[in-house]
Amino acid sequence: MSNGQVMNLYEFHEGQLPLMISFPHSGTWIPSELLPRMTPLGRNSVDTDWFLPRLYQISEMPEVSSIIARPSRYVIDLNRSPDGKSLYPGQDTTGLCPQITFSQNPIYADSEKPQTVEVEQRKTQFWQPYHQQLRSELERLVEIHGKVVLLDAHSIASRVPMFFDGVLPDFNMGTQRGATCEPSLSARIRGFCDGLSEYSYADNGRFIGGYITRHYGQMHSVNSVQLELSQATYMNESNGSWQSDSAANVAKEIRRLIELLLDWSQC
Q: For 50-77, what is each residue's pLDDT tens digit?
């Protein structure tokens, strides 16, 4: 794979502040040769983390490093362990190369599911470049600042019976129950949640952080936090459309979180 091909797998921006934001599930690109093997739901990448870079207003934060995946999570799930081990043992989940949607419908036509050799190829082609860039940037920022915060940005439908009962809280913060960041940052995050007067929240509830949060939270001087946002807070879930007024309110809270993380990382 040439360097140009690698760069087309993600959009990377190098910043100077001690914060990096990762968007591993915001992409919808699927290789053309893969499309005929997929169902209509698979081709439409229905479980995408819709609109997140726009919601985070990432283009307005040039001093913050960011990486945005372009491949669909159905090609490879960048927030899964490369060995395919479940992040939530005993609970339903989707794998490194998902074969079903969150609504438990097939992603591939009969007999077209990726087998072991293909999964390994996708790891090399799609998974590794994203993580190599992510790690490299975190190492650079740690060298500059001494410590850095990684914010892993996600969203999900408000109702996904496969994963949880009822309606998901609006803001779902995850630090693997405090294992991926310093206690003082955990306290700041609890304070952020307490300030969410218009939104419900959970701190290390159903979602405690995926592979990215857990893995990079073990790096020296990296403090990692996951935000799993209910899509009902900023979009019309029935037709998949962006809701400007709702999104503007959520964006204010996200900016408050980013400012909190930056303030902590610079103290």
A: 999 999 999 999 999 999 999 999 999 9
Q: Is the backbone of residue 258 left (phi > 0), alpha (psi -120 to 50) or beta?
A: alpha
DSSP tag of 36 = G
State the DSSP code for 78: T
Distance CA(207)–CA(210), nearest Å, equals: 8
| Cα Dmax for the chain | 55
The DSSP string of 204-233 is SSS----HHHHHHTTSTTEEEEEEEEEGGG
Query: Into how many domains does the chain fold?
Result: 1
Q: Look at residues 54, 93, 46 and name the one whose alpha carbon lies nearest to residue 73.
A: 46
Residue 134 is inside which H or E element, if any? helix 128-145
Query: Which pLDDT score, from 0 to 100, does residue 91 have?
Result: 67
Give the separation between CA 65 and CA 205, rounded to whole angstroms.
Answer: 28
How far apart are the C-alpha atoms of 30 and 76, rounded to whole Å? 10
The overall pTM is greater than 0.85: yes
Residue from 204, 227, 260 nearest 153 by CA: 227
pLDDT digits (tens, 9 = 90+) for 214-243: 999 999 999 999 999 999 999 999 999 999
Residue 154, domain CATH: 3.40.630.40
Query: Which among 175, 212, 216 is positioned nearest to 192, based on CA atoms?
Result: 175
- Domain of 61 in residue numbering reads as 3-265
Q: How far apart are CA 53 and CA 79, in angstroms?
A: 17
Under a CB-based contact definition with an 8 Å cutoff, are residues 176 and 105 in contact?
Answer: no
Taking each helix axis from N to C terminus, what angle separates 244-265 and 183-194, rounded to the nearest 10 degrees? Answer: 150
